[in-house]
Amino acid sequence: MRVLRPNPAAWMLPAASLLASVLLWQLLASARPHLGLIDFANAPSPREVLDAGWTLLQSPKLLFHLGHSLWRVFAGFAAAAVAGIALGLAIGRFGWARGTLLPPLEVLRPIPAVAWIPLSVLLFPSSEVSMMFITFIGALFPILLATVHGVEGVDARLVASARSLGARRWRVFAEVIVPGAAPAIVTGLAIGMGTCWFCLVTAEMISGQFGIGYYTWESYTLQNYPNIVVGMLLIGMLGMGSSALIRALGRLAMPWQGAAR
């Protein structure tokens, strides 16, 4: 039985990349160069951002803003996951669904999330629901398209083999099509989660009163530059962590993927 040993290169290279990025950041913040289109005169240093982050960590505002943002993201993402997977499975598998559902969805897909904000304010009496709707819109189309491509990519020989063994149509769908499309669906969910955070920040900057996006925008209006970077980094870490969580859950739900590798 082979014993798996940790590979130092697996974590040394990412760590070196992050360290180099922080050192470059420190260099630019200290020198404050003016590079034509980019001016680093007001860029906060890593130490200033670290101090601002520590202050926020000790403040009750962190859990308050974080709780609002997490609720908005996961409510919108859950609705988008249900709708996107259901529509994607139908469009990818059934011709009637592709002909009737895909054209209007393709018209709506290129519309940026920020363009939906005025309409969402008109449609929903609560600003909270309108911000959840923006995160829903942001996550829906990546999940939908990934599901459609996953269904279309299922090997036709697997479907033919199941039918030749006497499997009925819906059993083929549940036991061949859905498992075959599952890796693409998980990828779409991970991408959709990242898009959720992007859209949430946009919505909170315009319509929100609480949340990480609102905190970042408020820091800008108050010219508190280290807090801007703290908000940006917090959003990035939350987006990265939630996407990684989805991929990890996907690996647990698809043990056959690990066996195939």
Please tell me about this protein's structure.
By secondary structure, the chain is mainly α. Helices cover 82% and strands 0% of the residues. Helix 2 (46-57) crosses helix 10, helix 6 (127-152) runs antiparallel to helix 8 (169-207) and helix 9 (212-221) runs antiparallel to helix 10 (225-253). The two termini are 17 Å apart.
Architecture blueprint of SSEs:
Elements: H1 8-31, H2 46-57, H3 61-93, H4 95-108, H5 113-123, H6 127-152, H7 156-164, H8 169-207, H9 212-221, H10 225-253, H11 255-260
Short description:
The model has no long low-confidence stretch (mean pLDDT 87).
Instruction: Count up the helices.
Output: 11
Low-confidence parts lasting 5 or more residues at pLDDT below 50?
A: none
For this structure, the quaternary state is single chain
**Terminal Cα span:** 17 Å
**Major sheet:** none
Rg, Cα atoms, Å? 23 Å
How does the helix and strand content classify structurally? Answer: mainly alpha
How much helix is in the residues? Answer: over 70%
Q: Could you give the order of the helices and strands?
A: HHHHHHHHHHH
Total DSSP E strands:
0
Average pLDDT reading: 87
- Principal-axis shape: globular
* Beta-strand residue fraction: under 5%
